[in-house]
Write a structure and sequence with these properties.
2 copies of one chain form a homodimer. With about 475 residues, the first copy, chain A, is mainly alpha-helical. Chain A is built from 20 helices and 2 strands. Chain A is about 65% helix and about 0% strand. Chain A has a two-stranded antiparallel ribbon with strand order 1-2. Chain A starts with a helix and ends with a helix.
Chain lengths: ~475, ~475
Amino acid sequence: MNFALILRIVAVLLFLIASFMLIPAGIAWYHGETGPLLSFAVPILGAFILSSVLFFLLRKAERELRPRDGFMLVALSWISAAALGALPLRLSGTIPRYVDAFFETMSGFTTTGATILTDIEALPYSMLFWRSLTHWLGGMGIIVLTVAVFPLLGVGGLQLMKAEAPGPSVDKITPKVTETAKILWLIYLGLTVLQTVLLLFGGLNLFEALTHTFGTLATGGFSPRAASVGHYTSAYVHVVITVFMILAGTNFILYYKALTRQFTSVFRDAELRSYLGIFATAALVMAVALTRSGTYSSFGESLRYAGFQAASILTTTGYATADFALWPQITQLLLFTLMFFGGCAGSTGGGIKIVRIVTLAKQGFHEMKYLLHPRGVFQVTFGGQTVRKNVLYAISAFVFLYLILLLTTSLVVASGGFDIVTSFTTALATLGNIGPGFGRIGPVENYAFFPDYIKWYLGFIMLTGRLEVFTILVIFTPTFWRN
Amino acid sequence: MNFALILRIVAVLLFLIASFMLIPAGIAWYHGETGPLLSFAVPILGAFILSSVLFFLLRKAERELRPRDGFMLVALSWISAAALGALPLRLSGTIPRYVDAFFETMSGFTTTGATILTDIEALPYSMLFWRSLTHWLGGMGIIVLTVAVFPLLGVGGLQLMKAEAPGPSVDKITPKVTETAKILWLIYLGLTVLQTVLLLFGGLNLFEALTHTFGTLATGGFSPRAASVGHYTSAYVHVVITVFMILAGTNFILYYKALTRQFTSVFRDAELRSYLGIFATAALVMAVALTRSGTYSSFGESLRYAGFQAASILTTTGYATADFALWPQITQLLLFTLMFFGGCAGSTGGGIKIVRIVTLAKQGFHEMKYLLHPRGVFQVTFGGQTVRKNVLYAISAFVFLYLILLLTTSLVVASGGFDIVTSFTTALATLGNIGPGFGRIGPVENYAFFPDYIKWYLGFIMLTGRLEVFTILVIFTPTFWRN
C-alpha cells in the first residue's frame, strides 16, 4: 500500500475542501454570525496547515498508484472530507454532538440527504449553506469517479461505460481523468448556473435558489426549509426542480455528446430511454391513483405531485412536496419499488442504477432462450455493443451484494428495536443515498432518534452505497491486505 | 408443441390424483360425512372417466418431448392438479367459492401453506385430510422435479446438482428419472412413516400425526388446528417437528448418500453446512433476544420457540408455535431475512435456496479479487467442483428475476389498498412458498380478505415460485411460441 502518496492526495483534497469552506465563512461574516464564523475559521486554518505540512513531508512519495491504493484513496477521501466538514457544525454548537455532525456531513458528501436535524430553519445561514455545499461537492466528486475512474478500475460492471467516456485515450489514467473531469465539471457548473437562475425567476432568493440547486444537481435532498420543496407552493418551482432532478439523474456523458452535436447517440441511449420510461410510467400510475383517491383536486395537480415525488425517489434525491406517507398504498409501493432502481450510471444518482437493471433484465430474458435452445448463442447487448461476460459477472455480483447489504443493514437497524418498514427502508434510503423512506424515516421525519451505533453504521452504509459497494467492501477482504 | 403427449401425461397425473382422493373419500365414509363423500365421489369418477378417455384418444401421440413441451407439461400438471383438487372443497360447500378453493389447493400442491380458511377446525375430517395430502403429493412431485428433471433442463442453475444425482446416466432422461424417482420416494415415504410414529408417541392421534407430517415433510404448513403447531404444548412435539422441518429442507440426495454410507460426502456438503449454519445462527440470536425481552421465562424455552420459527421460515414451511408478530423487532427482521433464503436445492423447501446464495456470495468475493488482480484467474467452486460459467449466469438471472417478481407482486397486492409490510411480505410468502408473513398475513392471520384478482394472481405466483421461476416465465416469452 502506497500510504504516503494516498495521504498526500488526501491532503490536497482537504486543502480544497477547506478552501470551499471559505464561502460559508464569508456568509457567516456577511450575516454577522460570529460563532459560526469562528467555527469555520478554526477548521479552515487547521486544515490549511495540516495539509500543507503533510504535502511537504510526503513530497518524496512514490508516484505509482495501484488499484488497491485507488480504493483506499477514494474511501479515505470521503471519510476525511466528512470528518473535516463536520467540525464547523459541531464547534458552532449547531449540532451539539460529533456523531450527529459526522452523520449529517457524510449524508451531505454522499449526496444522501438523510438529516438528523429536527429544527432546520433555526440554523444559521452559513451552516445551512455549508450543509448544502457538501452535496454539491460530493456530486462533483462522484461524477468524475463513476465516469472516469470506476470504469477503469472495473468496479461493479461500470466498464460498460468505458467506451463511452469522452477523452483521447483509455490507456493512461491521468490525462484522461483530468480532461474528462474538466469537461464534466463545466457541464455541472453550467447546469448549476441555469437552475439557480430559473429558481430566481420563480421568486426564490439567491440563498434558497443556490442551496436547492446544490441539493437537486447532486441528487442530495438537503433543503434549508423544514417542509423541503413543499415550502414553495409555486407550480413553476416544483416543475423546475422536477426537471433538474431528472437531468441530474442522467448520465453526464450524454450532455457532452449533446454539446458536441451527437444527438442520435443521445436519443438512442438505451439507459436513458429505460430511465425516462420508468419515470413516466411511475409518475402516470401515481397520478391516476392520486386523482382517483381525491388526494388532489385535478389530474394536472396530481401529476405535478406524483412527477415530483417519482423523480425525487428514482433519482435518489429525496426532496418532498407532500407527505407521501399519507398517499394511497399503491403510490407508496411504487415509490418503495423506485427506491431499488436509482439514477443512470455517470450521474449523481445513487441506487442500483438503470444500466445494471436493464442489463440483468436482458440477461434474464436470454437465460430463457437458452432453456429452449440449449445450444444457441445469445449475447446481451447494450447500446448496440455486446456486453462482455466479465461485465455481466460484475453487475450480477453488485446486485447480489447490494441485496445482502440491504438485509444486513435492516438487521442492524432492527437491533435498535425498530419495525420492519423503518428498518428495511432505512437500509434502502441510506445504501441507495436517497434520504427519506417510510415508517419512522418518512418524508416529514428525520434520523435524529437513532442510537449512536446505528448512526455510525449508517454513515458507513451511505459511503458504501455511494462508492458503488465494491470500493468499500474490497477493503475488508483478506486479499486486500495480503503482501 | 407436442400437445397430444402433454395432455396424455396430464391425464395420467389426474388419474393418479383422483386415486389419491380415494383416501379422504374413505375417511368421509368412515366418519359418516355424507356430503363430503359425494363431493369426492363425483370428481374422482369424472377424473377417472375423462383421463381414461384422453389417454385412449391420444394413444397415437408422438413420443418425443422437447424442452418446451417439458415446461408446458410441468405447468399444466400443477394447474390441473389444483383445478381438480379444488372441486371436493367447492362441491361440499366447505369452501363456498371456487376461487378460494383453487387458491387453497394451489397453496397445497405448491407446498405454500397460505390459507383462506378462517375457521379451520370447523371443516370435516375428510376435507382437512385432503388439504394436507395435497402438500404431501406436491412435495413428492417437487423433489423429483428439482433433483432429476430441472437439472437436465438447466432451470435456474440447478445443473449444479446434475453430477450429484444418483442413477446410472445423465444422458437418457427416462430411465434416470424413473430410477431416481423410485429412490427419492422411498426416502420420502420412510421419513413420513418415521415422523408419524414419533408424533404418535407424542400423544397425537393418527389423523393429527399424519396431517402434520404431510405439512412438515412437504415444507407446506397446513395444519388441521387453528393455532397451527402452537395447539400442542408438548416440547417433544415442537422438537420433533423442528427436526423434521430441517430434514425436509435438506437435499434429498444426501439421504441417498447416507443410506449408501457415503458419510464424508454428506458431512462435506457445502450447501448443508451453510444451511445448518444459517439456521443455528438465526435461532441462537432470536433465542437471546427472546430471553432478554422476557418473552419466555428461560433460555431453553426461548431456544425452542426460536428454533421452531427459524426452521419453519427458513425451510419455507410456515408452521407457528407462537404469534411472532408480537416478538421483539430484531427477531421479526431475522425471520423477514430468512424469508429470502429458503431450503436446500433438491428438498421440498422453496425460496431462492441456499446453494444459489452461497454460489453468488462466493462469486461476489471473487469479483473483489478481480478488482485487485485484474489479470488473475479465479474460479467459483462448489463442493470441490468448479461452477461452470453458464450455471453462474443462470443463478444470477434467477435471483434477479426473483427480485423483480417480488416487487411486481408487491405492487399487485398494494393495488388492493394494502400497506408496504403486507404487500411485500405477501410477495415473499407466496413466491417463496412460505405461507405466513407480516402485517395482515401474520402468523395468526389468513389470506381470506384479499380480493379475487389478487387471489388468482397469488395462485400464479405460488406456482411460479414453486417451479423455479423460469419454468413458468419461459412460457410467456415470444421465443416459446415461435415455430
